[in-house]
Amino acid sequence: MSAKHIRFDWAIKRLLRNKANYVVLEGFLSELLYQDITIKTLLESESNQQTIEDKSNRVDIIAETANSELILIEVQNSSQLDYFHRMLYGVSNLITEYLEKGQEYGEIRKVYSVNIVYFNLGKGDDYIYRLNSEFIGMNTGDTLELTKAQEKKFNIEKVADIFPEYYLLKVRNFQGTAQTTLQEWIYFLRNSEIKEEFAAKGMVEAKETLRINNLSDSERAAYNRYMDNKSYEASILSTQEFEAQWQIEQIEEAKMIAREEGSQQRTIAIARSCKQQGLEIEMIMAITQLSREDIEAL
């Protein structure tokens, strides 16, 4: 048995910002990052302020963990060619925004960038990609390590613990059923559906919190408006894509007709020249593939 649940991007806008529902986000992040995540608070910045009537195709949320690490979660619905650059900008902006002027660089916080995209970004067939930074020797191939003093001062184990980590979830690439707890979350992100047997961290709470039937009348009305907007946007995008493809086909058809007409004119010119030179009609027919009638009419 399963039931339809609300979309994750709308949940981020409205429900998951409630402290009582942190457990849902904590479960998702714990499964994705393979570590137990506890959210201390959600931070406000200019980039993640949402209004009730916001129709943006991008929503985001910034979580501060119990050990003061920052997690930026972004959901993007519409195609964007420079989205990789957008990911870099978002993390860079977050790092500087939460480093107070005059603080030493060692106070820079670890940032996780979690990007959930519903369009085909880049070329790749996987549904989860991860980018984390290591310094690799160009000659020796070894990984640059921290000194014992650095480990003690910053309470980290490796250089990569300092630098941002990026996670890219291309959820449309996920096919089939969920075989792991992380795949249960990906399945939900793709289908807005949580099956009764799902047991990933945060799923028990999500099953109830994110049920459409559990929304209040005002929340359900707002959600229906949001989904209507998504349907409208999808219809507009589909129409634009169809019209663009149709125009391309019309241009290609016109080019083909022009090539055929040009080829036909060249053939007629050759036949006329052959006839003027006194070649037999059968010979001209063999050269040009024109009919006897066409050649005699020249």
End-to-end CA span: 78 Å
**What oligomerization state is this entry in?**
single chain
When the domains are counted, the total is 2
Extended strand count: 8
Structural class: alpha/beta
- Overall pLDDT: 85
What percentage of residues falls in helices of 4 or more residues? 40-55%
Radius of gyration: 30 Å
The largest beta-sheet arranges its strands as 2-3-4-5-7-6
Number of helices: 9
Name the poorly predicted regions: 51-55
Q: Strand content of the residues, in percent?
A: 5-15%
Largest sheet: 6 strands, mixed
Q: Name the overall outline.
A: elongated
The helix/strand series, from N terminus to C terminus, equals: EHHEEEHEEHEHEHHHH
Give the helix/strand layout:
Blueprint: E1 2-4, H1 8-14, H2 22-33, E2 39-43, E3 58-65, E4 70-76, H3 83-97, E5 111-117, E6 128-131, H4 148-154, E7 165-170, H5 181-191, E8 193-195, H6 203-209, H7 217-276, H8 281-288, H9 292-296
Parallel strand pairs: 4-5, 5-7
Antiparallel strand pairs: 1-8, 2-3, 3-4, 6-7
Helix pairs in contact: 7-8
